[in-house]
Amino acid sequence: MAKQDTDRTTLDLFADERRRGRPKTNPLPREAQLKFNKRNQLKRDRERGLSRIELKVDQSLLNRLNLLAAEQQLSRADLIQALLLQQLELQDSQ
Predict the structure, then answer these.
(1) Can you give the residue ranges of every domain in the chain?
(2) Single pTM value for the model
(3) Given 14, 23, 40, 77, which is the most exposed site by the fewest CB atoms within 10 A?
């Protein structure tokens, strides 16, 4: 029996065949998918009342934040938000 390249029912014939990448399930190119997903993410964040801020920190501070977030089982963003709220409450009480 000859092997047909389009026949995928006989798996043992294709066990050593390597297919590159994951199957294409979206007609848009990857760059367009990323833009579309980012736009939707920003829209969801706005609906939840969230605003984006950018913060540049030293690598040692980033490492400390990552460790602390892992210890408290939080995301780094949630940890930073909690620390900022805690500092603001401390400022308000003085």
Answers:
(1) 57-94
(2) 0.59
(3) 23
